[in-house]
Please model this.
Amino acid sequence: MIITSDGFPELAQALTTERKRQGLTRSQTAAVCNVSPSFIRDAESHPERCSLEKLVLLVNGLGLRLEISGLSELPNNKAQRGSA
Model:
C-alpha cells in the first residue's frame, strides 16, 4: 500500500481489518501495542491526525510493516548512514 494524502482511509481500513482478523478488541490491541484504546479508535478513523511514532507502534504490534521508500535518493542519506 502506498500512502498518499488521500490514502489515509485505506490505511484506517487496513488497521481495522487486521485487528479484527486477529480477533482483538481495541483494548487488547492497545495493551499489545503500548498505546491507549482511544488512540486505536483515532488510528482506525483518522490516522492522518495520529503521530507517526504511535502509528508505528500500532503497525508493528499488529505484526504489519510500515515501509518508506526513496530514502536512498535523498542527498544527505549517505552522509547520515556513514556516521552511524
Observations:
- Helices lie at 8-21, 26-33, 37-45, 52-61, 77-83.
- The mean pLDDT is 86.
- The radius of gyration is 15 Å.
